[in-house]
Amino acid sequence: MTDVSSPYTTLPLWPKAYAASGASATLKLLNEDFTVTELPLQLPSGAGEHIWLDVEKNGANTAFVAQQLAAAAGVQEWDVGYAGLKDRYAITRQWFSIYLPKGETPDLTQLQHPEFKVLSQSRHVKKLRPGDLQGNRFRIVLRDVVGDRAAIEANLQAVASQGVPNYFGAQRFGHEGGNVEQGRAMLAREIRVRNPKKKGIYLSAVRSFVFNEVLALRIQQGLWGQALPGDVLDAAGRPTGPLWGRGRVSSSEQAQALENGVAARHAALCEGMEHAGLDQERRALVASPGELSWDWPQADQLVLSFSLPAGNYATSVLNEILHTTEPERHTEGEPSAAVE
């Protein structure tokens, strides 16, 4: 666990649920090695003040595409909505919305851009907002796989049957975890953050860090896959952990003692989040990839396919199977399988 006497300048090596396979592979050597398809909550109805666009992008991040769509439609950036951030170094498919209540509807399927294309468009009654998605479907090609295939397969079987720790991914915390330290400094009023978007990013990083610490402690104590006395279960019957904020944690007994113990070790963060106006929420401790399948097209190449609910990270699945490295171009804090 993290020593709170030192600044939060580096992320801990949070423990895994299963024994390391000892294998390694290259992730995202090519954009097409990482494909993501958004699973929407609903499809456009065909009428309304918003245009919904089904967009496929290749090598662009979500915010950039939103800027380009706003310019093409002649609107402000805040008139463009989307449900979640998607990877830049990948081929991803997701929905965008544009508020265009009046005038002629532009045909954005004719928009020409080397990094994205609009596959279809239709009108709808509401704007897309963060979190307006069921989840995402992934197809991941891992290249240059080195290690014991039997050990990899054993971990894949464990993941398929028992799920993975529902950690927030490293990308949530910024480059080398820097968002956590910035968040701590902001909550301690050592720095002043005026930009609302940055403030939200720092608060999210701090909150996610404390959740990961609770999950990590349960794994360290040999409690992975177990429900504790006093656990709060989600609709699927899975134990949950705290997303810190105002009010008491809703757990009790042993679960509450564990959560409050972590909060005490990170008292400055938790008290700061309470004063920042965040309310207590819960998040499942287990992520369960749906329809997980895999194939070995070559001896050193592994292809994974699975879906995850909104808010879960593909990196949490990969981390339990083998160690991955990405080309240097991906080390700049780009969103990576951040399913929001």
Description:
Strands 1, 2, 3, 4, 5, 6, 7, 12, 13 and 14 form a 10-stranded mixed β-sheet that branches. This protein has a two-stranded antiparallel sheet with strand order 8-11. Strands 9-10 form a two-stranded antiparallel ribbon. The longest helix is centred in the middle third of the chain and has 25 residues. The radius of gyration is 21 Å and the shape is globular. By secondary structure, the protein is of the alpha+beta class. The N terminus and C terminus are likely disordered.
- How large a portion of the residues is in β-strands, by DSSP E? 25-35%
How many separate helices?
7
Distance between the termini: 26 Å
**Structural Rg:** 21 Å
How do the SSEs run, as a string of H and E?
EEEHEEEEHEHHEHHEEEEHE
Mean pLDDT: 91
- Strand tally is 14
The helix content, as a percent range, equals: 25-40%
Q: What class, by secondary structure content?
A: alpha+beta
Low-confidence stretches: 2-6, 330-340
Oligomer: single chain
Biggest sheet details: 10 strands, mixed
Net shape = globular
